[in-house]
Amino acid sequence: MNKLWIVTFETFLRQVKSWGFVALILGPFVIFGISIGAGYMSASGADNRDNIAVFGQSELRQAFVKQNKDDIDTSVKSIKSAEKKIKHNNLAGYLVLKTDNNKISAVYHGSDSMSNSLKSKLTIFTTTVQQRLNYTSAQLSATQVKSLQQQPEFKEVITKKTGTDNLAKMISFWIMVILVYTILITYSSITAQEIASEKGTKIMEVIFSSTTATKYFIGKVLGVMMVIVTQILIYLIGGWGMFAFAQHSELTKDAISQNKELISSVLHNLLSINLVYLLLGVVIYTILAALCGALVAKSEDASKAVQPVMMLNMLAFFITFPFHNNMDSLVVKILSYVPFFSSYFMPMRVIINEATPIEMAISLIILIATIILMAYYIGKIYQGLMLQTDDSSFWKRLKRGIAYNK
């Protein structure tokens, strides 16, 4: 048992110390950092360029600026200064507000039309002020003013937030499918190339003389599993940190606040039993990749070793596409129990709340049993596969590897 854990930890340490693992871990965080940095630079660079200056009668100006602080550049104190900034593309334009004979007027000067959102705010502001001036000019009583201010009543009775729920399911589906596909491709390639690189080396004869091939193979698989779990934990902790940062960032907090329910639904769909399927899916593909790596003729063929696993993973990935709008179909139900496919299709059913706990348990039992049987059997024939160095066909090497164990 000690030798098993020695192989496990040696595999784990070698993988986590590699530059490939470091790049894999840091990649999402670097992209997030670059995106946030670019967003801040873009926002800070665009703040003044999209803002306007406001001039005119003091009371009108102060009232409008107070209601629209984010759109007004209060540092511009004169029309001449505003025109200079517009010329240098540092200001969108300037607005002049004034009243004459109880009539409000607003004149906008700029290199381009006023934005629709600000134009809408200006229209509401001027209409409100003009209405107040009209009431004063007409010398209406309080009762008459109240009567004129009556508005129609509008109510919404929402029985179910179907739109948000469906959008959350769709986002969760694509995130899960792409995440499973990417991680499977990555670790299948890593495992196949690592096993293939040991093909035919003298060190394998020494290793097999000191421990069984089964222990060595299972130790390799457990080492890769530890690497996968480490990566998932880092992503979970880092993702939580990025989400916490985004909640307080001036650039993203409003968007998160507006879509809080959608984000919560997506996170709930992802941080569930779907993570177990992600882990087990990677494990079963890793075992198959190890078999393919052991079946290559020589270490120089390491790049070819992963191709069968890649093709199977791509098949499972692309089969999901026709069913993204029909996740409760019979094909999805069947494939959610089939190893190598269940890691894609059972999470689809979980996301739409179509899979029962019993169905999930059956699917997991089948997947775990397949993983155990594959690991045990491949471990039994692993020595016969690894010690072959002749350039024969794939099937001949597999047949001899099976016969070696008998």
Provide a brief overview of the structure.
With 406 residues, the protein is mainly alpha-helical.
Describe this protein's structure.
- Helices cover 71% and strands 5% of the residues.
- It is built from 18 helices and three strands.
- It has a three-stranded mixed β-sheet, with helices on both faces.
- It is elongated.
In terms of topology, how is this protein built?
Elements: H1 2-16, H2 19-50, E1 52-56, H3 58-67, H4 79-87, E2 93-99, E3 104-110, H5 116-138, H6 142-148, H7 162-197, H8 202-210, H9 213-248, H10 253-258, H11 260-270, H12 274-295, H13 302-305, H14 307-319, H15 330-335, H16 342-351, H17 357-386, H18 394-404
Parallel strand pairs: 1-2
Antiparallel strand pairs: 2-3
Helix pairs in contact: 1-9, 7-11, 7-12, 7-14, 7-16, 9-12, 9-17, 12-14, 12-16, 12-17, 17-18
